[in-house]
Every structure is written in C-alpha cells, then in structure tokens.
Amino acid sequence: MRGRTPSHARLRRRFLRFVPVGRGMHVLEVGCGTGVIVRDIAAMVGARGRVVGVDRSRSVIAGARHLCRADPARPRMAFRVADGARLPFRGARFDVTLAVTVLLHVPDALAVVKEMARVTRPGGHVAVQDQDFGTVVCEHPDRVLTARILDGVVEHIYEEPFSGRRLPGLLCAAGLEDVRLLTDVFQDTTLTPYTEAFLARRAENAVRFGIVDAPTAQGWLDGFAAMLERGAFVVTMNYYGAVAAKRA
C-alpha cells in the first residue's frame, strides 16, 4: 500500500535523484521487499543498466519476481534471497548500493552498511533512507494518549525507531566520505488509505502490547475521524536520506 501512495512515490523519486541513480549504472537494493524501488530504478538506469534486489524472505522475493513479470524493464532486474549483513557478491561490483526503510529494522545496522560499502566500487555511492519515528506529528484531541500509543508501539516493533537522524553517522562509521543528507516530509491531511492503515495498526499493536485497552484504542482512532470531519486532520513524518562516497 505504501508503494502505491503518491506522497511516498514522490519521496522515493526525490531520494533516487539525490543519490543520484543514473543511466548505465549497476545498482543493488538491500531489503527490496516486493520490488517497488527496484522497478523505479530499472526505469532510470536504461537499457545498459541493471538493478539487483535482495531480501531475506523467500516469499517476498517470489512476490517481487511475480510483480515485475510484465514490466518492460524486466530484463534489467534480478532478485535474490540474501541477508544484508552477508551479501553474496564480490567486492566493488555495484555503482550504487542502497537500502530504503530497512535499517530501522536491523539489530546491527553498521554491519549492513559496511557490507553495502564492500560491494560498492571505489568512487561509487552508498545510500540509505529511513523514517524517524521521533518526528511523527499527529493532530488529535488527546495529545498525551497519542504520544503514549505512538512512542510505546515503536519501542516494541523497531530495532531503531530513531534511525533516520543517525544515518549520516552510520555512513561515517563505515569509512565512507562526502556524506550528504536529504530531509523530506511525508504529509497527509486527508486520511489516505495508507495513513488510515498505519494508524489502525498502531492502535492494534497498542492493545497487543498492553499499552492501552481496546476501547481506548478505538476511541483514539475515532478522534482522528473527528479531526477529519472538522478539516483539521494532520499527520506528518520526517524521512532522512543519507548518501556517501566510497573512497576512490
């Protein structure tokens, strides 16, 4: 659902231009999921380029292969099952290696970034992008409850919920240089299906983790519906993209 949301598509395009990804490049995406970004990149690298997506989940990789079958750029794409901390590629193989909304799920993000750097050619770029859940802003009648639910849930489901702000430091720690940072914002004032599902999952997890009971969670969701009716619904979240060069 996130991949089809127009605001997220704009975030992806801005980040890929920032890296930048260009024609003729060989690109690796770590944690590719169902291949949304792989398909974006395949359209950018042209006939002489190539993009490889890896993910730890066999079922996700099978889904990615299925979804790209009818894509005109299919010959430029490949998918493999692999762990980001142990990539099955020789060193210096790719012009660009990237991971998008991946490192916040990883217990040892530095190990993944170092492995990404290993398979990137000298002079090439390593690029990472993550949300930062410390920057979520929601307009809601009960701000204390909102903070309790949002902050409580992220501590249970992400290895590093504040990953976004730490990306430049990770790239430096991996021995990369010329680090650049792009700060972007996801914004919704209309309660799109993506945001509705995002808030519903937060409410469900708040109940599951014992943060609130079910009636309180439902009341919290109803509060967003009330804000929407009044024309006052706002949800925003910062995304941080960091790019660095491998020493030539």
Question: Could you characterize what this model shows?
Answer:
The chain has 248 residues and is an alpha/beta fold. The protein has a domain at 2-134 and 158-187 and 239-245: Rossmann fold. The chain has eight helices and eight strands. The chain has helices at residues 6-18, 36-45, 58-67, 109-118, 143-157, 163-173, 193-208, 214-229; strands at residues 26-30, 50-55, 77-81, 94-100, 120-131, 137-138, 177-188, 235-245. Strands 1, 2, 3, 4, 5, 6, 7 and 8 form an eight-stranded mixed sheet that branches. Strand 4, helix 4 and strand 5 form a beta-alpha-beta unit. The chain is globular, with a radius of gyration of 19 Å. The N and C termini lie far apart (39 Å).
